[in-house]
Amino acid sequence: MFSQTHFYKWRHFSDLSCPKCISVPVDNLKAITKLLLSCTTFSEDDICRLLKLSTNKWISCCRTEIFNAITDIKDTFCKSDKVEHTLRDELTHHLSIPEAAWALSEKELEPYKKLLSDIEPKNVVMKYRWMFEDMFLRLPQKKERQTLKKIIGRSRRLETRLLKKSFQKEDEKVYGS
Q1: What number of other Cβ atoms are within 10 A of residue 69's Cβ?
Q2: What is the number of other CB atoms lying within 10 angstroms of the CB of residue 10?
């Protein structure tokens, strides 16, 4: 007959000593970053991946090394639409929900904003074409969305007032009050 010799871990409610996530020491992360930067070819795809990696909240100890490596070669990708879009998407992502745990602060995003202003085209049409590439207008930041929400709210309140007035006029016609 089968008899159990060891209790399953999921049945041990008292044994909660197992860590849920394994932390990586900062020294190891810095060494991995150094190895990554020495092996990369700095193609457009690599730069986009490095930008996404550097804007990760949990890579704060290596952010400056990655960002400095990218800015050192910015002349090679200054005309790249792909890098510009990736950088803008990352900035928009972090600025759209600043209260999220994964979002970087305004201060941490300042170098990225400067890099974006350095690499974006100087021609006004080419500079703002990203807003109209999709079928819908892409709004750049949360502040502008809040302004848009205020405008929509005002127009809804105005429409509600107009509807109430028209209903009152109809009531007066029907009931003669």
Answers
A1: 19
A2: 6
What letter would DSSP give residue 57? G
- Encode the chain (177 residues) as per-residue pLDDT tens digits: 555 555 555 555 555 555 555 666 888 889 999 999 999 999 999 999 999 999 988 888 899 999 999 999 988 888 888 999 899 889 988 888 888 888 899 899 999 999 998 998 888 777 777 777 776 666 655 555 666 677 777 878 888 888 888 878 877 777 775
Please give the structure tokens belonging to residue 109.
């995003």
Q: What is the pTM of this model?
A: 0.63
Own/partner long-range contacts of 93-97 (Cβ < 8 Å, ≥24 apart): 93/55, 94/55, 95/141, 95/142, 96/141, 96/142, 96/145, 97/142
